[in-house]
Write the structure tokens for this entry.
Amino acid sequence: MKLTGAQALIKSLEMESVEVVFGLPGGCILPAYDPLLDSPIRHILVRHEQGAGHMAEGYAHVTGRPGVAMVTSGPAATNMVTPLCDAYMDSVPMVAITGQVGRPFIGTDAFQECDTVGITRSVTKHNELVMDPHELPLIIRQAFHLATTGRPGPVLVDVPKDVLQAEIDWWWPSDADLAASLPGYRPTTKGHPRMIKEAARLIAAAERPVIYAGGGILKARAAEVLLELAETTGIPVVTTLMARGAFPDDHPLCLGMPGMHGNYTAITAMQQSDLLIALGTRFDDRVTGRVGAFAPTAKVVHVDIDPAELGKIRKPDVPIVGDCRQVIGEIVKALRVLAQPGSGVAPPDRTPWRSQLSGWQERFPLHYDPQVEGDALKPQLVMETLRDSAPDETILVSGVGQHQMWASQFWKFNHPYTWVNSGGLGTMGFSVPAAIGAKVGRPDRTVWAVDGDGCFQMTAQELATAASERIPVKVAILNNAYLGMVRQWQEMFYEERYSEVYLSPDLPDYVKWAEAMGCVGIRVEHPEEVQPAIDKANSIDDRPVVIDFRTDAREKVFPMVPAGASNDQVVVHPSQAPGGERFVQ
Amino acid sequence: MSNPRPTHQTLSVVVENRSGVLARVSSLFARRGYNIISLAVAPTDDPAFSRITIVIDIETTSVEQMTKQLFKLVNVIKITELDPSDSVERELLLATVSASGEARSQVVELVGLFDGKIEDVGYSTLTVMLAGDPARLDDLEELLRPYGITELQRTGRVALPRLERQAPRLRNATGKAS
Ligand SMILES: Cc1ncc(C[n+]2csc(CCOP(=O)(O)OP(=O)(O)O)c2C)c(N)n1
Ligand SMILES: [Mg+2]
């Protein structure tokens, strides 16, 4: 069968079971948009290519399937760089297809030519410029394979216009063709049996163990087996910013989020533990604080599918390369063997550890100054009301800043894949498009984006996409009129010298913005309006809703481990440290 | 002979021989801040693959991290760490040296002592070549310097593991193997 490159591209996407593509056409990718008209694949026309990338990420976060974005060359490709880097940092499976100038023009500074493959090399798991039209189906198949296996990540395929216009004999590469075409790619998924035994031995003997669960748990679909590990051993679990929802917040063994704005118990439990069981996580600086002072007495079992993460920051005592679901399953089995009577292993007494943990939990719960009538609205109150009014399994998406930390702290994540955020790159502007992508992936779920006023202004034109495509996302802007997180740092570390952080509460007018984009806009200034506004938003299902919550700009995120400080120096809420002292353990 | 602790380590990296692979390798080094001393590339006996020989400054760069990160590149097939004491390392040097009058015969003699070659002869300069152990190249370079080196080109080292000549058991007995 003869097909054009463009037809072969779209057919290849169909072969990969792609159901939706986020994109925006232009000169070089134009040929591909023609066969798209005849394809069952849904295309969502974005208003900015960065939006297409974040939508693809949001879709991938909640479905586990690769998100697909398709844009043209030059400026469209460069607009895709931020989402690619975001997906790279957070290991999000994504395939980006970019148009490129025709092969004869490559290297001539032709109109809208840029070195897309060169520019995106360090922010993709892999990328490829298609020079032979016959290879197009293979390269697309490779792209999906690479994006979704091993440590997932973004893959970019750059397709010159004349490759799209060329004629090829259609073929679809077999599994064997695929494997032969990638001789250097063999991710290790099965953990080493000896290491698994060794890990089980350490776990069985530890007196103060903590499970340090990262986003890899979600990527590996390992939430169930993580629960099994925790419950069979009674070991408490911390879930990093990327792993919220991987272990239920309601579970008695859940200690919540560790890190710079984590809760006191999660941070301190890691600091004082004698064994960290690090699963699908990478000892990020926001989690460890000053690395040299991090969890000084802990041995480390580290499981990750990416060998380069083992020993990158912290040298593990037991390194295990493998898929988290497989490895945790094997560890649970090994632990069962050890627990059999006559195995000679006496279980340690963990009661002192448990009581220490619950002591901290009682003394240092998450806390904020209660709302006072007539005072400015507390953002935390908004979060709590949102949480308590949300249907079960609501998907929460956030931007980057204070609101992101409050979202993670105050929500109760009880299901995997209900939290979508930009952890590694910290991309302002992530939430609106990511929420749209999430809602496309899970139309059955309520999707709330919690956004900052600063973040919102970076990508909120995508609300026009949402309205025109009838994607009813809900956006709660915690509008503190500031680049709040930066303001907090200036307040705490720059002697309240506020430099370029004020935005204004009403410029732009967010309600009018929402209405101009075909959404419902609601403004909330007083505490008593919070619940009715949220109820109203939850009842609307035929268009997007934006609520402009005018919140108290003076609120700060606590607890906090200042940048560069050790995790022994948690700054708790002032009311929990009456003398303003830091809690040094 | 007791060597001081080596400051370098050699990686022999087999990659797919296709366009862009060298760029991937070098941009990885730049992106992760790895310091390399030299890099040499050429196709292997199978033209589908190339061998990149990289000499790493191990005082500033972790060989383990570099190896693992390199392995993540989809086009990297195989990486062999070559311990300098367990591998054959060779390099080639070309140098143009001022050599007129008396100096001329001294340079010729010096190059002869090193088993090097005079590859080109000018009125007042000579271009000399030496291939061999990189340390010997360093020595010759230093001895030539006083005469005035006007051009210098070194290839960067290439290396292969030393061949096994003893039975593995014997090596175990000497405590060297692993
Ligand atoms: C694209 C981008 N630019 C700058 C930053 C640095 N930054 C981090 S948080 C923040 C403030 C965000 O303000 P807002 O969206 O209003 O959220 P708030 O902290 O007030 O809740 C800034 C500027 C960033 N993370 N991303
Ligand atoms: Mg703000």
Remarks:
- DSSP finds 24 helices and 22 strands in chain A.
